[in-house]
Each structure stands twice: as C-alpha cells, then as structure tokens.
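F.,

This is the one I mentioned.
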C-alpha cells in the first residue's frame, strides 16, 4: 500500500496568526512537522497542502514538497482530498492526515496509524491513548472513544463515555479502560473520496466532531492504540512551551 502523508497547513489562525511559520528553536513549525513525518517508514511521500503562497514558498525553501489548495475548505479532510486529486489519485492508495501544529509528532505514531489502516475494514483509521488521569474524563477538549471488540469505533464524544453507574472509590480510569482520541487520521483513497461527499450530520453538529458524520453514515473507523503523547501548538502559551522544550 502506497501511503501519502499530507500536512494541511493554513496561514490564518485566530489564536496564533501565521502559525505554520512561527519559529521554534531555529526552524518553523511546518518544517519540524515535515522533518518528523519524513522519518517514518510507512509513508511513500510527504507533502504540505496549503492555501497560502507564503507557506508554499517557505516549504519549497527548505526542500519540502507542496501543493496549493483552495482557501475555502471547511476541514483538513477536505484539503487532503483536494491535494490527493491534484497529485493524482492513481499514484497513492491511501492518505495520512498529519496535523500541521504538532512539531514534535513521533514518526512511530504515524507508522502506528498506517498499520491500523492496513487492518481497517472500512478504510479509515485513527489512534487513541488509554486514559491514565481522571482529569481527561472531565475535559471537553479531550475526545473519548468507545469501541467494539474489533477496535472499530462505536462513538466519539466530548463527554466521558461510557457513564459509570457505580464508580466506586478511587479513580474512574481504574474501573474502566477509557480511551482518548489522538487526532491523526488515515484513509484509503476510496474511503476519503466517499466521506468528503457526505453532508454534516446531526451528531457531528451536536458534538462538533467531524468523525461522527462518518459513523452516522455507516463508515467504520478502526482505532489503533499509541503510547506516544501528542502536543499541539495552538496558542501563544503553547508556542512558549514548544520553545522551552527545544531550549529556545
């Protein structure tokens, strides 16, 4: 399976303007993501998908591959599909949507989602981590997942699912193996083509989670497990932390 890694990268960001080009220890955010993605073994190629010439020129400047896409896409999924179409769907069997704001993403994590995709009956895969802190269960910024016995998703929610009727004493995560979502997606070209044509669903609108649209329309999403932590740079405070991590 030839898998293309696509890094959607928009210049506009309300909380951190010019996010792809911010400096983190002498290298830009987008350069760090590209370099990490290139280190994984599961990808045949890595490309940045952007709608901004400043980002495109910068990526070309450090030797990265870039494809220009529309500024009107509502999600990274749609941007990935346009990038695949522009590059030629016959060149690749599948796509990994790599978040452009994770400068420290582990290459092994990308390989993990590629491995999950190869076993995914619905042609869609993503990752999850086992919850080890009850604070994640009460954080609406964390997305929890329930799965069936085959590790296909039953539901994604910003609420702690399942509800523990008898939580007992001690931490809730010790009573049930809760899973929290890691926002790294992989799709076969066929599955990606199908899901971008779906209209927003009621569950998606209720929870503001795009993946619920896929489930509501009957698409299976295989969940792979990862031990690698994620760190997204989405605010000035996150950027300060990223610079601290590299000693800048």
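My design for it:
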């Amino acid at each position: 399976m030839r898998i293309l890694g696509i890094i959607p990268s928009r210049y506009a960001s309300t909380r951190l303007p010019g996010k792809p080009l911010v400096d983190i220890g002498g290298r830009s955010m987008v350069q760090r993501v590209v370099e990490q993605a290139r280190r994984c073994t599961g990808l045949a190629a890595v490309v940045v998908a952007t709608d901004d010439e400043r980002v495109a020129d910068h990526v070309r400047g450090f030797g990265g591959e870039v494809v220009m896409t529309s500024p009107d896409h509502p999600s990274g999924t749609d941007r990935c599909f346009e990038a695949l179409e522009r590059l030629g769907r016959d060149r690749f069997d599948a796509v990994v949507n790599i978040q452009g704001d994770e400068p420290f993403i582990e290459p092994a994590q990308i390989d993990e989602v590629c491995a999950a995709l190869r076993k995914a009956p619905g042609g869609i895969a993503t990752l999850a981590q086992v919850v080890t802190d009850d604070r994640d269960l009460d954080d609406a910024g964390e997305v929890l997942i329930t799965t069936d016995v085959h590790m296909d998703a039953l539901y994604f929610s910003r609420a702690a699912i399942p509800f523990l009727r008898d939580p007992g004493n001690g931490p809730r995560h010790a009573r049930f193996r809760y899973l929290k979502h890691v926002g790294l997606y992989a799709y076969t070209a066929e599955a990606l083509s199908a899901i971008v044509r779906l209209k927003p669903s009621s569950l998606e609108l209720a929870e503001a989670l795009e993946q619920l649209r896929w489930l509501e329309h009957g698409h299976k999403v295989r969940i792979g497990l990862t031990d690698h932590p994620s760190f997204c740079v989405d605010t000035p405070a996150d950027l300060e932390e990223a610079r601290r991590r590299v000693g800048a």
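Residues 119-229 form a domain with the Spore Coat Polysaccharide Biosynthesis Protein SpsA; Chain A fold (CATH 3.90.550.10).

Talk soon.
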